[in-house]
Every structure is written in structure tokens, then in C-alpha cells.
Fold S1C family serine protease.
Amino acid sequence: MDETRLSRRRLLSAAGAGLAGAVAGCTEPRADNSIEGTSSHEIDRGNLADGSVYTEVYETLIDSVTQVRAFGVNDPVTGEEGRGQGSGFVVDDSHVVTNQHVVAGAEDADLQYINGDWTSTRLVGTDYYSDLAVLEADHVPDAATPLSLADDRPVVGQQVAAIGNPYGLEGSMSTGIVSGVERTLSPPGRQFSFSDVVQTDAAVNPGNSGGPLVDLDGDVIGVVNATSGENIGFAISASLTSRVVPSLIEDGSYDHPYMGIGLRTVDRLVAEENDLSEATGVILTDVFAGEAAAAAGLRGSDGAVEHRGELIPVGGDVVRALDGEPIPDRHALSTFLALETSPGDTITVDYWRDGADRSTELTLGARPEV
């Protein structure tokens, strides 16, 4: 464990035990010509309430969370040029992570830290398929220590906090719990799904996108992806972020594994119409010509039957395991590919066809460029 994370955990552990927690100080803006501003966060108002462990988390991390303003962004509805706004957080001495959709199409982007400092940036890399982006900042305040990505996988019921700038309200925090893990999120307007998404009931709104969802140790368990959901929020997991971000910093891009299939979770109706003994696995609805699954001899469904107004695919191969890992549903398949494989890897696919269990080797491709 690096010294920054260790120090942060010691501080937050002390706060959680009821000990006096140190409050992170704010630095004066540097004299750089490109940096300006001060912040009300610096004002010592006195007579402050005691707060809670969440207060200690906030004070420990807030210097490392930024507001992102992207210029030259085209409005998706009107097509007019405007300004995008979101959040981000420092991950090393010069790089800030945010969402790809916050900076997509932008001519340039500025950051504002909680101490009032403004700085310009350079776009290092973006990944459309995970909605992650990395900016290189011209200036990072001394107090903005890098935030650590959590090593442990989140669990339902775990206490978390989202820190960011909803509706441009700088330095906001909302709290809640992890309310779901390993979700597969289908974002509006995109013909694919985000893998290994963390679900939370912590309030997130437009402007939170790109900010950190953190645990009470101060580690980032996900990068917030604000949606229009009511009383529900999502974040790209730390597990996926830890794979994508280093590649964006190093190469400016990230290649996701690709089987070249369309699929559906085997529920009771699919099991009944395909004479399956149990409702588990994923049925292949499509196998795209020239892609990995087709080369491995897998087959998609050859028809559909209507059941209570719903079309049920029939005749496709039913995938039940990848490299010996059970695949009970599409979420499990998506998470396995995202976290355990890379393009060029050869995996074993266990599947059911025509009343018999079968197995084949499949060499993964890369998702097509957008």
C-alpha cells in the first residue's frame, strides 16, 4: 500500500473511532499567470458543528476533487456550441480522471480546485466504451494528493460518498450505500453497455459525472456516471478504471475484448421455449460474421416465438461458462470479459447446443473503434 493511501486510511480510521481528525488545509493560489481565484472553503468561520466521519472523508479528499469545464462542446439536441461541466479527481502528480462524455468534442478544458485555483489542461486520452477520460493539468495544488483506487471489490450495503459539482455547485457531497454491484448499464444513445458498474443510492446529478464515489477509507470505488435515474446512481468500477486509466495515460486509448455476439439472459421463458432444464446462462441471439464467436463456430438464434406479446429467441447456443467461470447471466459475462480478459486472449467457452454440452476455444478480438 502506498504511503499516501496509508496516511489517508490512518486519518480516517482515527476519525471513525471518534478521535480528533486533522482537517486538510487549503493552499494559497500560486502566482502563475494562468491561475486565479480564491475559495470560501479557505474562510475560517468558527463555531462549526462537530460533523461526522463523512466530514473527515470530505476534508481529507476535497482538495483532490476538481470541477471540469469543457469549451466548444456541441449540444446533443440543438447542435449549438456551448460549454460542458462535470467533475474529476487527481490520480497522480499531473493527471485528472473524468468521464469521456464530459469532455467529448471539447476544444479545451479547464479545471478549478476547491481552493479557487484555475488551470488549463491537455486531453491525454479517452475511452468511449468505459466513459473514462484523462486530462493532464498544467497545475496541481500541493494539497491535492492523488486519490487511490480501491483494491477490494465493493459489496452491497457498504457506506459510500459521492464528491463533485452537481449543477455546478462546487465541492458538494452526498452519501449513501452501495445498492448493487456488477451491473451492466445501457447508456442512452450508445449501442453497447458499460460493464462492471457500481450502483448507489447516493444522490448524483448532472455535474457529478467524472467525480469519485469513495468508501470511508477514502479510496475511490468508482467514477460517477450521472444518469437521469431517480434515486439511483451509477459509477464505473475501480476495477475497470484501474485497467483503463493507465492505458489512457500511456497510449491515449484502451482496447476492450470483443466476442462479436448479441445475447440475452436465459430467464424462465427462454428456458421453456428452448427446452432447457434450468434458467441460467446467456443465449446467443446474434453471432456477427468475421468476429471471434463466428470463427469459433458458435451459432446465434435462428428464429423467435411470441409469448404473451414478447419475442423469445430460440435455437441459439447457450453459453454457461467462460474459462471455467460460471456465466449465469449477461452481467456475469460482461464483467468477466471486462476484468479478466484482453484482446488476443484465447478462452474456453462451455455451451449447450441441441441437447448436449459442448466446448470450444475462442480468441477474443477488440471492440471496433467508434
User: Anything to note?
Assistant: The chain has three domains: 3-137, 159-251, 257-366.
